[in-house]
Write a structure and sequence with these properties.
This protein is mainly α. It has helices at 2-16, 26-47, 56-61, 69-94, 100-123, 137-152, 163-170, 178-201, 207-215, 226-250, 257-280, 295-318, 333-338. It folds into 2 domains: 23-153, no CATH class; 169-323. Belongs to the TM6SF family.
Length: 339
């Protein structure tokens, strides 16, 4: 039925658009996902008790994991952040404006959502009762990868910067750039935190891991499976990416930093929102919630991880000169004047 509904929507969109109008192929993806985000918002509102009778039958017979705290927080993110981003990209699309940056943020967030959700359901307590409706999430995981490949092939939105300024910025070492040095230290700290929590969910016998999971973040051992998968995603995917981003802050001319910092920021924002919210949510059993006396250090550590990714993306796009392609020797404006 879901496939029939999606197919009908795509057909109606195609029939109602003027045939002479050249439509961006991503429009159809954004339109369908906008509908999915509205359904997610409906689920979030119903699970929170604000409405009733809209999705209870589907949740009970199709995807029972949608009633968990993690799924509720994800549904709010879908119905808020994702929906606004999709509608804004559609608006920009039909006005002929670029939506590349917003698109990469959405791609990172949407992929992070599904790369945690699908394995989390499979390995968690709902894995033994997976219903056919659950497999609709597979196309939802694959579509953003295709969207990312389309968006990345489009030109970047880079301001005009003189060759002299580019050369001057790229001649500075990381010690001469305090903001980049601070961001590098934050990323190294985030890497250490990701490694530590990865060891925790892998049942590392160290006393520090045992203390952390029982006294600081007991949500990591929640049998729903989502927090465990999320920490492993950080360990095996985010950790290498953060290491590469640290190198990008040190090496001039890494223009790919302008793209991957956006993808990383979107992914971290989505995962941290869901993780923090679910660890405090009333639907999470009390024994797995963050203890009241450890609330501040746990929240600070998780919020700092999200802030580091967001600040890195902001830094790269606020002053992109260091990340632009190096100016060949003798091609700077000052050198041309001398010659």
């Amino acid at each position: 039925m879901a496939m029939v509904v999606v197919g009908s929507i795509l057909l109606l969109l195609h029939l109602n658009l003027p045939h002479k109008l050249k439509v961006d192929p991503l429009f159809y993806v954004f339109a369908v996902f906008s509908l999915a985000c509205m359904l997610s918002l409906t689920n979030a509102l119903e699970q929170s008790g604000l409405i009733s009778g809209f999705v209870s039958f589907y949740v009970k017979t199709g995807e029972p994991h949608l009633s968990t705290a993690y799924a509720v927080m994800t549904s709010y993110w879908d119905g808020g952040v994702h929906l606004v981003a999709l509608l804004e990209m559609i608006r920009r699309m039909f006005r002929g404006k670029s939506y590349r940056r917003l698109g990469l943020l959405w791609v990172g967030s949407f992929i992070a959502h599904h790369i945690v959700l699908i394995p989390g359901v499979a390995v968690g307590k709902y894995g033994s009762g997976v219903r056919p409706a659950f497999w609709r999430n597979i196309p939802c995981l694959l579509a953003p990868f295709w969207a990312a490949s389309v968006i990345l092939r489009r030109p970047r939105e880079i301001p005009v910067i003189t060759a002299d300024k580019v050369a001057a910025e790229q001649s500075k070492g990381v010690l001469s750039r305090p903001v980049d040095l601070l961001l590098s230290l934050l990323l190294v700290g985030a890497m250490a935190f990701s490694v530590f929590r990865g060891f925790v969910v892998l049942d590392c016998p160290l006393d520090a891991c045992f203390t952390y999971i029982y006294q600081y973040e007991p949500y990591l051992k929640d049998p729903v499976g989502f927090p465990r998968v999320m920490m492993l995603v950080y360990l095996f995917y985010a950790l290498p990416l953060m290491a590469v981003l640290v190198c990008g802050l040190k090496t001039p001319g890494c223009s790919w930093m302008l793209d991957w910092t956006l993808v990383f920021a979107g992914a971290v924002a989505q995962t941290q929102w869901c993780h923090i919210g679910a660890s405090l949510h009333s639907r999470t059993p009390f024994t797995y919630r963050v203890p009241a006396d450890k609330w501040w250090p746990v929240m600070a550590a998780n919020a700092l991880l999200a802030a580091a990714a967001a600040l890195l993306a902001l830094r790269c796009h606020a002053s992109p000169a260091f990340f632009m392609r190096p100016v060949p020797k003798g091609q700077a404006d000052s050198d041309k004047k001398k010659n």
